[in-house]
Amino acid sequence: MGCTSSVAEKLKKESIAILEKNRRVVDGYTYTVPSPTAYPHQWLWDSCFHAIALSHIDISVAEDELRALVSHQFENGMIPHMIYWQKDNGSFVDIEWGKEGTSAITQPPMIAYAVLQIYQQNNETAFLSEMYPYMHRFYTYLLTQRDPRGNHLIGIINPDESGEDNSPRFDIPLGLPHQHSLAENTKRRFDLFKKNIACDFDAPHCMKNFFWVKDVPFNAIMVKNLECLARIATLLGNHDDVATYKKEMDAIRRAMRERMYEDGVYLSTYGADYKTIHTHTWAIFAPLFAGLYSREEAEKLILTHLRNPAEFDAVCGVPTVAKNDPAYDPVGFWRGPVWMSVHWFISKGLRGYGFHNEADRIVQKSCELIQRSGFREYYHPDTGEGLGAVDFTWSALIVDMIND
Ligand code: GLC
Q1: Would you say 199 and 145 are in contact if contact means Cβ atoms under 8 Å apart?
Q2: What pTM was estimated for this model as a whole?
Q3: Is the CB of 165 under 6 A from ligand 1?
Q4: Per-residue pLDDT tens over the stretch 174-231
Q5: Residues 6 or more apart in contact with residue 234 via CB below 8 angstroms
Q6: What are the pLDDT digits (tens) for 330-346?
Q7: Which of 79, 84, 165, 281 to mutate to test the pocket of ligand 1 (most atoms within 8 A of CB)?
Q8: I need a surface site. Which of 39, 41, 197, 270 has the fewest CB within 10 A?
């Protein structure tokens, strides 16, 4: 488990309270805002994190969260990364992201995982059946529209689709030096966004000519979620789909190995010719979540990188960027601090290999961080200071982590 049962009990109570506080009901749909002030809308992977936590608390609310999420699916199958249920708040997200009522880009496809997690709690197939058509169309969209050259890696058209908006992994594809201000980064992302708009968000014919990053976490998450979707299709008796999902999952695994694996780690690539991005971020651990490293490789990865104090073994957790990378900034948004979702992905991945002590160590540090600094968006890797948005729901993932 990684933290004492009394601490776990206390953190669960606090998680329930924050998820309730941030719950909204609009037009008969129930969803959770990640933070009432900074993020007052619905986000794709956030809602999956919420549903994962809520599956331990109140299954029907977890189901509602995902119902709201798929309610704005596009005709082509894409699920937008943001839904503005209420347009009354003056936060940055009122920037028009391309469409009326939603954004026109997506985010890491965690939906099948979240849906399967709910099934694992209640063993009922009704919700699987209800969600299946949405999921089938969404994952088919990613497999086709985001892989126009048929190379079996999913491309993202904007850094924000990774969920790590200004991660240094995207500096080179954006044409930025590692040292630059947040304002410069934002400007570059919005310039790219203007291209997205000019392309009418057409990934296969237009956007593939720009940024077009094949990101390690996005593709690892895709592999894991196709595995979950295949399991769901099996439970529902959709045998043809099972074979298709498994085939696609294996093809992505092979393509990641062929085009991303270098010196013992997976690295993101960009452009039509798959140029490798050597920036050292937590993304090297994301493939653990999908079981992409062999056991020996995973052991070496842990020893060389995860437990290396010069890189990712910080006092308070796993920084998002290696401490010895030139881009590392312990307080910079996605450029160094500890994020609870990253702890969740890594600890899940470690458990998949049976490295429970390593996973417990991360869960323990997560418990300490929340106890010390509360439910914050991210945390200083050395001091544990809480940073970014307040009343942030991702820390509720602790409810799932302490359950392992
Ligand atoms: C930020 C994060 C993104 C998240 C959103 C809402 O944009 O980078 O991952 O989905 O906030 O929490």
Answers
A1: no
A2: 0.97
A3: yes
A4: 999 989 998 999 899 888 888 888 888 888 888 888 889 999 999 999 999 999 999 9
A5: 242
A6: 999 999 999 999 999 99
A7: 165
A8: 197
How far, in Å, CA of 210 to CA of 403, rounded? 42
Ligand 1 atom index nearest CA of 107: 10
Residues in the chain: 404
d(CA 281, CA 283): 5
User: Among 282, 265, 289, 261, which Cα is nearest to 359's?
Assistant: 289
User: Of 326, 325, 323, whose CA–CA distance to 310 is shortest?
Assistant: 323
Question: What b/e sequence results for 266-282 when a residue is b if at least 16 CB atoms lie within 10 Å of its CB, and e otherwise?
Answer: bbbbbbeebeebebbbb
- Testing ligand 1's pocket by substitution, the residue of 39, 169, 221, 341 carrying the most ligand atoms inside 8 A of its CB is 39
Identify the bridge partners of residue 276 per DSSP, sorted by sequence position: 269
Q: Which two tokens stand for residue 314?
A: 């910080």
161 lines ligand 1 (CB under 6 A): no
